Amino acid sequence: MDRRPNFLVALALLVLSCVGAVKGESSAGCGKTPTITGKQYSMTNRPYRLVFTWHQLGGSAQKIVDGKDTSRGGALPYYGLNAIANNSAIFVVPQGLNAGWGNQGGEDVTFFDQLAKTVAADVCVDTRLRFSTGFSYGGAMSYALACARPKDIRAVAVISGSQLSGCTGGNDPVAYYGQHGTSDSVLNVSRGRQLRDRFVRNNGCTAVSETQPSGGRSVKTVYQGCNPGYPVTWKDGSVIFAPKNTWDFFTQFS
Ligand SMILES: *[C@@H]1O[C@H](CO)[C@@H](O)[C@H](O)[C@H]1NC(C)=O
Ligand SMILES: *[C@@H]1O[C@H](CO)[C@@H](O)[C@H](O)[C@H]1NC(C)=O
Q: Which residues form the signal peptide (predicted)?
């Protein structure tokens, strides 16, 4: 983290002790008082999901926390997830070099590795329940992690993404939720579908012919035939559907 010490760990809950979190893979932070500070709300003994929320180009960690990104993708705090997470998740909100995720030489994936390690050492997380999401560049970064760190990420939600942060590896399955507006003029929908199709293949799902919604209609496709534990869901349509769909997708895993 030498070049980029900026990140926020939003403790959507206070993890004073996690002695009850015997299920899953408890991290080293279990049973200790966290020293990373953030918002603290309540304490429970449930295992905590960890959700990485990557900002869009020109965004910032603070804007994700405040829900103040100018475009609709970041218009709700924590991409709208904290509001529906019912204190079951800890959000990690990183901040990119040059306000993006160019991932030159894999530097942003390395940053993720360091963040994941730092957080796991300090707060109580279930290391099997780590997720990643973001809008646009943040979606690209989530995709890059699905490619490069399939063992570390249980599922991604790539919202209006494109291959902007690379894809090292990219041969292993990761549960994949993707969503893209069909009239997106910045990153067209074909670019989002291209990312999705890698995980349709990797996850062993049956490819389907494209549904092309018209007149602003939204179409959700749940792929069939995927290997157990590696679903793929795709939605053509507006970003306003992202929080609920993302959360439903992430919480199918336990
Ligand atoms: C929120 O979590 C608490 C504690 O696990 C649970 O009792 C409650 O039913 C949950 N509320 C909703 C709306 O899911
Ligand atoms: C989508 O964008 C890519 C990259 O800019 C471009 O090559 C491609 O032709 C576009 N596809 C459509 C259907 O507009």
A: 1-24
